[in-house]
């Protein structure tokens, strides 16, 4: 705050091309990110080292509060560095909450290509399935192609399917017991109603 009050250049870069906004986002300093944005920092400014934006850095490390502030400030959720978007980085690191936030951002069509496979390759099966469902809801053929081209993703989908099948079998096995429980509850309810009616009549 003192530096900004002294008219320090909010978008000044260090020798690596990183700016104050990059450092704040990388370390999850939400209040500092907001302060810099309020002071006029460019939300989508790129560092010279790797051309990463603040959104890439926050998404990589799982700082959802920073991601939310950056998106609200107009950060481009589709910004790509060598075809890698914030979605790829969040998915690959298993940050499902950020993945959901990015999926809710406007114009996310380019975000999804390859992100599910990236997550699966990094062992983040749950996140991979979330992204894949989003892809499937928009373009089933694209989802099929992505599965076919990503063995890790195909394995994640298979595990999800097998888990759903096991759950269905378990439910089927327990269904008779559930039915008996419902019958018992209904019978108890009928008895209580009859008792209440008897009390009211007397």
What report would you give on this structure?
The chain is mostly helical and 202 residues long. The chain is 66% helix and 0% strand. It contains eleven helices and no strands. The N and C termini lie far apart (78 Å). The model has no long low-confidence stretch (mean pLDDT 77).
Structural class: mainly alpha
What is the string of SSEs from the N terminus onward?
HHHHHHHHHHH
Helix content: 55-70%
Number of helices: 11
Q: Give start-end ranges of low-pLDDT stretches.
A: none
Which strand-content bin applies to the residues?
A: under 5%
Task: Report the strand count.
Answer: 0
Q: Write down the overall mean pLDDT.
A: 77
End-to-end Cα distance: 78 Å
Largest sheet: none
Cα radius of gyration in angstroms: 26 Å
The backbone outline, from C-alpha atoms, is elongated
């Amino acid at each position: 705050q003192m530096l900004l009050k002294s008219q320090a250049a909010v978008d000044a870069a260090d020798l690596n091309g990183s700016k104050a906004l990059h450092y704040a986002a990388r370390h999850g300093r939400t209040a500092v990110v907001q302060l810099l944005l309020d002071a006029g920092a460019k939300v989508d400014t790129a560092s010279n080292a790797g051309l990463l934006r603040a959104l890439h850095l926050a998404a990589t490390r799982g700082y959802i509060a920073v991601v939310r502030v950056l998106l609200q400030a107009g950060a481009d959720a589709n910004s790509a560095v060598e075809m890698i978007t914030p979605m790829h980085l969040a998915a690959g690191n298993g940050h499902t909450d950020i993945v959901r936030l990015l999926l809710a951002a406007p114009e996310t069509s380019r975000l999804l290509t390859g992100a599910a496979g990236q997550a699966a390759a990094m062992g983040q099966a749950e996140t991979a399935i979330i992204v894949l469902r989003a892809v499937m809801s928009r373009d089933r053929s694209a989802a099929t192609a992505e599965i076919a081209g990503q063995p890790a993703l195909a394995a994640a989908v298979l595990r999800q399917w097998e888990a759903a099948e096991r759950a269905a079998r378990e439910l089927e096995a327990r269904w008779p017991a559930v039915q008996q429980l419902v019958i018992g509850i209904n019978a108890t309810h009928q008895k209580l109603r009859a008792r209440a009616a008897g009390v009211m009549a007397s």
